[in-house]
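During the reporting period, our protein records have gained a structure token line. A sample record is set out beneath this paragraph:
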Amino acid sequence: MTKQDLYDKVSANIGISKSTVGKVCDEMIEALKSALKDGEKISLTGFGTFEIVETKARKGRNPRTEEPIDIPAGKKPRFRFSNPVKEMVKR
């Protein structure tokens, strides 16, 4: 499903224009990105949780040359689905 497919489906379900749905969804995505940038944890009850996790520095290997490399510590986004979504997908 693409963003446009999502806009079409929401628009049909609640009876508002696709452009309005698109604006609302785009603003929601921007708000989520801004919150993650600020290090906030975002919980969408019944769907899942977005958060930033810190990774430790570690050793790695260049797959082309098999040469060992140092991977620095960093931060990365993580999303975890809620249990109801996990159960729904299992069926």
Notes: The longest helix spans residues 18-37. Residues 3-90 form a domain with the HU Protein; Chain A fold (CATH 4.10.520.10).
